[in-house]
Amino acid sequence: MARRARTPGGPSTLYSLNKARLSRGPDHILPGQNLRLRG
Q: Which domain of life is it from (predicted)?
């Protein structure tokens, strides 16, 4: 997802930007969730 969205910093940055939304961890992204892709 991070690669496709060209998020600078890759998956670790994507998770950092969305920690509050991904309380169960980066492996629990649910359909319909809105995630920040850039800082």
A: Bacteria
The mean pLDDT value for 16-23 works out to: 94
Tokens of 5: 């969205």
For the cut 90, the answer to whether the pLDDT of residue 10 exceeds it is yes
* 7 exposure class (CB count in 10 Å sphere: 0-12, 13-18, 19+): buried
pTM given for the model: 0.77
**Gap between the Cα atoms of 23 and 31, Å rounded:** 15
Long-range contacts of 6-15 (CB under 8 A, 24+ apart): 7/37, 7/38, 8/38, 8/39, 13/39
